[in-house]
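Assess this:
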Amino acid sequence: MSQSSPRAPQPRLPAAAACALLAILAGCTSDEANPVGSGLPGELQLNTPQTLFVEAMAVSGQVAVKDESLSYDHNELLYFGIQGAEASSILARYDVTTLPDSLPEGAVLDETTVTSVKLRLFRTEAYAAVPDSLLDEVHPLLPQNPQKVFETYTLAAPLDAALYPGPEPATEAQIGSQTDSGASVFLDLPVAQLLTWVTAGMNGLLIREGSGSQPGLVGYAAVDMTSSGYQEIDLVGAGTTVGPVLTVAYRDAAADLDTAFVFAPVADVSTFHALAAPPAGLAAGLEVQTHLRRYPYFFPDLEDLPGDILINRAVLRLAIDANSFGPVESLVLHEVPRSLLVDRDTVTVQEIEAAAVTSAGILAVDLGQMIFDEEVWVGFDVTSTMQRALNGALAPDTVLLLTAGEEFGGYSVSGNYTPDFYFGRMLFLGTAHPAQPPHFEITFTPFSGGGS
């Protein structure tokens, strides 16, 4: 995938050039000036507009975000595979001790009557190599239906889903290995192992990527997937049990009857035992990570701006890093108190919702398509925020928090999924980049004269 050639910001532009620049980058130059905040003196004389590129940030940082109403093991997708520095396996535990209760009285349960045991995984359509319909899209920044080696192990101790994300648990024995891909994956498990679980219970299963797999993290439906996510998977028919389900085929020869028993997991979770570190400060880049949410915050240093100005237009420009991956998302800038974020590793969605004011947003940003189309920049109109900052009408500890499309922000994620649904890393170049650093393009008009 290619990007357009580097384009370094220029320190100032004359009025005509600034007008043209804003027409391209901001999409509108005819907006009325937006002097939000304290009143302006009367009898003003407006002077020639100027444009200033502000790269310096007065404050910056990043923070992990969690939904306090949702524990991690109740996410709707399970992640499997390796992609760069990220790696995740699937853990699931089942209660099959009730199987004899579902059989007719006197029925035999052994290796002659149980004909097969299969574990089924439902892959989401975002990872399909070919769209199923005109409404579906191929996502350039997601692995497309990779061939995977699925290795299945029994756990040495009972699964504790509350420990994840975290290291893979100890295993007891490998009970399966097969190569597969597609919307549905069926993994064969030993019948003898099922019979052991029926009588003694089970600790759980680990499904790990084996050597020889094509790269890429792939999302599969979890048992907690809600109906809104069903459009993302191949359900085959009404009433399909969703999740990493066990299907036990039972043959009653005397009655000439074949029956299938389906067991949903009592617990399932992604390990995410390896995760890429976030950029080491704003110089290295900015990262908006979804599923395991991680968001950057910052605010520009406005010391070089004169005090008596009218801001005609202010645009935050971020250059896309081609190492990004993930499906279509929304990006939203929020004004939040710095005190909510500083010196904290994690904040909750609920805390942000209570404190945030939406500054600007972009609906359904497809970074993969933008890179494919050789676009480089995404932009946010922050005119109102910058004018209020200069006028003293913005709280002095305000910072800008860049998030995915949280429901409260007014820019829902494409497909109406919250940012905990798909895992993705939207990356933007940092202030150390020689040609495309993040910056605020502020076009302003100095004024003189007037009086109160």
